[in-house]
Amino acid sequence: MKKLVKVAVVAVGLFLTGNAVNAQQKVAHINSADLLQAMPEIKTADAQMQTFQKQKQTTLEQMDAERQKKIQAYRDKEATLSQANKDAVSKELEVMAKEIEDFTKRMQETQQKAQQEMGQKQQELYTPIMQKAENAIKAVAKEKGYAYVFDSSQQSLIYFDGGEDIMGIVKTKLGISATAAAPAAQKK
Q1: C-alpha angle 163-160-35 in degrees, rounded to nearest 5
Q2: Does the model's pTM come out above 0.85?
Q3: Which residues does UniProt call coiled coil (predicted)?
Q4: Cα separation of 137 and 79, whole Å?
Q5: Of all helices (H) and strands (E), which one includes residue 66?
Q6: Phi, psi at residue 149, to the nearest 5°?
Q7: Of 9-18, 19-28, 33-42, 69-78, which gets the smallest average pLDDT?
């Protein structure tokens, strides 16, 4: 019986010690969206992405202009339809309608391909930047002994009061001046 009491006392002691250690873990937060916007690499990536999007948009606009010309040519030819030339013009209209249909399909395929390419380009441009920010946050967390770093830009964070805002430290780690794009601290 005494042995059981001793085991229970030791177990309770270990449990309370474990809770005390856990209660003292350091917590921090950072707004990752603001951090990313402060990084100069984002501006470069944004410019490259806009250029890429404009190129794709220009191609699609050119294709649409060509399709509109084909549609107008079809309408013009249709206006010349009469009883006298019905057979010949009808065959030409069928061929033109098929061309317009085929061209529209090609245009849709080009648009889908452009969307895929833009997604790939976006991933190519932004993934290394996000990885760099994440690595800096992890490095600061390890250096400063934070057990948890919450992202205050995420909608899932309902409330935070306390913990240290490590934005300035992470910016320093990334070589970004503390005054660069310093948005007001947000509390949710």
Answers
A1: 70
A2: no
A3: 49-124
A4: 68
A5: helix 40-79
A6: -130, 115
A7: 9-18
Average pLDDT score over residue span 77-98: 87
Please provide the average confidence, as pLDDT, over all residues in the chain: 82
Residues contacting 118, CB < 8 A, separation 6+: 49, 52, 53, 56
- Going from N- to C-terminal start, the domains of the chain cover 25-174
Assess whether pLDDT exceeds 60 at residue 19.
no
What would the two tokens of residue 168 be?
């300035």
